[in-house]
């Protein structure tokens, strides 16, 4: 079992109060974890504040070199980190290792992009120089999720650190040992207090979000994001949020239903549905609905039954499925909590769903595919737009005009056409509405982590 410690001002400190994390595979104990106190939060933020001017004054090339060294250390620590991630949140070890590799790539990407993140000269008076320059915001609080704890953390940490900010990092209380091991690998490559780590649950997170920091960057649940937005409205910090989603998938008439069902299954069931941009609701044209449902059920029954992060989350997923069934949805496969230890839940297909069911209207974050049958592409677009969220959407169509309409009209940050997952490296998008605000990835994240200053320079008067 891991004995997690906190890193405050360059010093690993033991817990004064702690809790335990049990694994979703079999319920065994994985880690004992400190619960950060208000004093811990204050000490970490002060240390970060004191260290920030020196780190900001460090040459960009030197900051980039530190990030590259940290990426190399993370690469070398992949095996232990992947095993710990799997034990804490249930992802198979091979998939966890792929997530670590994505984190390594992200750190290396920001090491290169950070040195190129320049300002620009303005066309002003010929006797003066006018510039727009980027400067670090200061202290960044990074609050990260459990479902992809390394890759997401590396994005926020890499962009913040390479631009001259210091960071107080709080990983999710559901994957704290993963965050602890990640910090142990990264922190030695930076000066003391440039990267600190706190652990704990909602109380610790709220204390950090309300502290005197300059940015609170959060990836996680919408309710938490809204609480952070309220906290930063009081302090004046910038809120950078990527929060929940209820991402639609539209299946148009004329597509191969077997191919569409395979795309839908991967989108809804991969990582037991615990992916930020997972498929959460399906709008299927009536012309292909029957063969599509048959193929989706077959695909679901071929998918392995994986664990959700814990039994509390499994109970919430099952409650949505049960409520849909009670309201008239048909459970075509799955929908039953299996016997045995852990927090496993089967891939589940629901037919006859309506937009007012929680399993359609809200974020489920589990391996559930609720299907709504529609009579036209127009109806599918209209119903897909009716959401409190705006993270991502997928459209499966053979019509170029329908594809064009979809990406233009769907009010989300990312639209994927004919692929449930995919995209070029460095892509970034703005989540909308309940799904957050600000860029979370790509070169644009460097802009989020910096402020722009306008400078006007003139020569002194000759009379001086």
UniProtKB/TrEMBL annotation:
Residue ranges of every copy of the Aldehyde dehydrogenase domain listed in the record: 12-455
Presence of the UniProt keyword Oxidoreductase in the record: yes
Pfam families: Aldedh (PF00171)
Alphabetic keyword roster: Oxidoreductase
InterPro entries tied to this protein: Ald_DH/histidinol_DH (IPR016161), Ald_DH_C (IPR016163), Ald_DH_CS_CYS (IPR016160), Ald_DH_N (IPR016162), Aldehyde_DH_dom (IPR015590)
Presence of keyword Oxidoreductase: yes
Name of the protein: Aldehyde dehydrogenase family protein
Organismal lineage: Bacteria, Bacillati, Actinomycetota, Actinomycetes, Micromonosporales
């Amino acid at each position: 079992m891991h004995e997690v410690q906190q890193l405050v001002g360059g010093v690993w400190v033991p817990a004064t109060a702690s809790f335990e994390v049990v694994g979703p595979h079999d319920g065994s104990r994985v880690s004992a974890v400190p619960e950060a106190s208000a004093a811990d939060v204050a000490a970490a933020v002060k240390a970060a504040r004191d260290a920030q001017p020196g780190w900001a004054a460090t040459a960009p090339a030197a900051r980039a070199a530190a990030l590259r060294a940290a990426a190399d250390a993370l690469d070398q620590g992949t095996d232990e980190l992947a095993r710990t991630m799997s034990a804490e949140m249930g992802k198979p070890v091979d998939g966890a290792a792929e997530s670590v590799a994505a984190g390594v790539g992200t750190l290396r990407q920001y090491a290169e992009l950070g040195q190129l993140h320049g300002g620009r000269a303005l066309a002003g008076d010929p006797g003066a120089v006018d510039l727009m320059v980027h400067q670090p915001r200061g202290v960044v609080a990074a609050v990260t999720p459990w479902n992809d704890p390394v890759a997401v953390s590396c994005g926020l940490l890499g962009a913040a650190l390479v631009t001259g900010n210091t960071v107080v990092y709080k990983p999710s209380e559901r994957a704290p040992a993963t965050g602890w091991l990640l910090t142990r690998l990264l922190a030695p490559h930076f000066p003391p207090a440039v990267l600190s780590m706190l652990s704990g649950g909602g109380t610790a997170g709220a204390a950090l979000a309300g502290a005197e920091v300059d940015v609170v960057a959060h990836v996680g649940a919408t309710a938490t994001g809204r609480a952070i937005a309220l906290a930063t409205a009081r302090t004046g910090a910038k809120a950078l949020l990527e929060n929940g989603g209820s991402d639609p998938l539209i299946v148009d008439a004329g597509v191969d239903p077997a191919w569409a069902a395979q795309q839908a299954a991967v989108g809804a069931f991969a990582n037991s549905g615990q992916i930020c941009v997972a498929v959460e609701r399906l709008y299927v044209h009536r012309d292909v609905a029957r063969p599509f449902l048959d193929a989706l059920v077959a695909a679901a029954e071929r998918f392995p039954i994986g664990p959700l992060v814990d039994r509390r989350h499994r109970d919430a997923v099952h409650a949505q499925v049960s409520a849909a069934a009670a309201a008239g949805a048909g459970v075509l496969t799955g929908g039953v909590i299996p016997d045995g230890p852990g927090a496993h839940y089967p891939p589940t297909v629901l037919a006859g769903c309506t937009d007012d069911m929680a399993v359609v209207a809200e974020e489920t974050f589990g391996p559930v595919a609720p299907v709504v049958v529609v009579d036209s592409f127009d109806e599918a677009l209209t119903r897909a737009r009716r959401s409190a969220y705006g993270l991502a959407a997928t459209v499966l169509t053979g019509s170029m005009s329908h594809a064009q309409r979809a990406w233009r009209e769907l009010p989300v940050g990312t639209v994927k056409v004919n692929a449930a997952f995919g995209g070029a490296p460095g892509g970034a998008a703005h989540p909308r509405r309940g799904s957050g605000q600000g860029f979370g990835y790509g070169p644009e994240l460097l802009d989020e982590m910096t402020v722009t200053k306008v400078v006007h320079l003139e020569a002194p008067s000759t009379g001086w």
